[in-house]
Amino acid sequence: MKIVEDDESFKEKSYSNGGVYIGKFKGKLFHGIGKYTWSNGTIYEGDWVDGKRTGKGLMIWPSGIKYECEFLTKLNDDVYVGKFNRKLFHDNKKYKWSNRTIYEGDWVDGAMTGKGVMIWPSGTKYEGEFYESYLHGRGTLTRENSCVYTGDWRMDANRGIGQVVHLGSV
């Protein structure tokens, strides 16, 4: 997708954070086709709806890496970046919930399935296997300033063989 910057319906706006948007607006919100360039040089070209990346687009990082993707931003500000299969998340991509929980990893038919990383707002981090959106298989859960459990998981519970290491002073 290439933005035609000389289109008369496009406007350019610079922001105090160093970002620049060239594209269509609905009121003060990005809406329609547009290109946003962050101050670090990262670029998104594609569809916008009510100020949010939604639909097909192209991400370009300063390193030159390009990724054609689809964004789905829900009304509650949850964001999914990746590919869809029958309107379900299906790929190895990232989802950010409005409560700031982040998952990056494999999706199959709308469920976190395969390898991934989940980080909660508390700083707790799980890295390992998921099945139908459960912590399920082999994985490591790190609770910030507390302990690390590495072992087997079944339906969100640590089950089977594992090891706990307590962090900090005892």
UniProtKB/TrEMBL annotation:
SMART domains: MORN. The keyword Repeat applies. Gene3D superfamilies: Histone H3 K4-specific methyltransferase SET7/9 N-terminal domain. SUPFAM superfamilies: Histone H3 K4-specific methyltransferase SET7/9 N-terminal domain. It comes from the Eukaryota. Keywords: Repeat. GO terms for cellular component: membrane. The keyword Glycoprotein does not apply. PANTHER family: MORN REPEAT-CONTAINING PROTEIN 1, PHOSPHATIDYLINOSITOL-4-PHOSPHATE 5-KINASE RELATED. This is MORN repeat-containing protein. It comes from Trifolium subterraneum (Subterranean clover).
